[in-house]
Amino acid sequence: MSASWEIDLDGATHTVTVERSEAGKDVIRVDGRVAAKPLGSDEDERFITVAGYSYVVRRIDDSFELDVADAQVATAANVLLGQTVLASSKAAPISARKSSGIIGKIIVWGTIVGGVAMLMLMLQPPSYEKIARARVHHMLDEMKSGRGEEMQFAICLWQRNVKVLDNNEMGYASDNFDKWRREKELYNKGFTKFEIISSKVLKEEAVPTAVIGFSLDGVEYLVRVPDKKPISWE
């Protein structure tokens, strides 16, 4: 059982793969490098970072899915994983007894603490600015055709940065997404090239909010991107 995805982020293409190891665990790699602790047979998801952006790999039956990760869920999962690694390291002082005195113990514990600190740093979710940039990037990628029947994922990302909405919310979001596109004459209008050109986080907002600038075939636009709320023109 294996899977592979290519992700375009900030002008670069990154490859995410999942492969079954000889030990029976599923190894996740980003651009050929192991990106997280392998998935055991009793685990269904793992959070990873791709070029500073947070994603989640999920095992569903006999296949895998890759989604943009929710920042709060990623934080909680990564902290828990770091705590698990730290807890498992409590057996390390046994090997320290083989070293010469207190200096050996200090070296061993320094290595353990440094390793856990590095792991925690690597697993930290990205800033909200990067989350907002990734959200707009993926939404625009889904909007390229301009055809309404192909806008399902774009609508969900525009509404609150998810891949799926229930039927009631989907109907409401679809109507408002069309109104939002019409404000800039983008309704049923496709484009061939898009680019994220600027981003900044607004301070003192009730929820994390970023202003993202992007261009569509050379025409520049500016949007306000509040966390888990609809995107609006700035």
Report what the structure shows.
- The chain has 234 residues and is α+β, with helices and mostly antiparallel strands.
- The chain has 6 helices and 11 strands.
- The protein has helices at residues 71-88, 93-96, 101-123, 128-143, 152-160, 167-182; strands at 3-9, 12-20, 26-30, 33-34, 45-50, 53-60, 63-68, 194-202, 209-216, 219-226, 232-233.
- The strands form 3 sheets. It has a 4-stranded antiparallel beta sheet with strand order 1-2-3-4, with no helix packed on it. A 4-stranded antiparallel beta sheet has the order 8-9-10-11, with helices on one face.
- The longest helix has 23 residues, at 101-123.
- The radius of gyration is 21 Å and the shape is globular.
- The chain starts with a strand and ends with a strand.
Secondary structure layout plus pairing:
Elements: E1 3-9, E2 12-20, E3 26-30, E4 33-34, E5 45-50, E6 53-60, E7 63-68, H1 71-88, H2 93-96, H3 101-123, H4 128-143, H5 152-160, H6 167-182, E8 194-202, E9 209-216, E10 219-226, E11 232-233
Antiparallel strand pairs: 1-2, 2-3, 3-4, 5-6, 6-7, 8-9, 9-10, 10-11
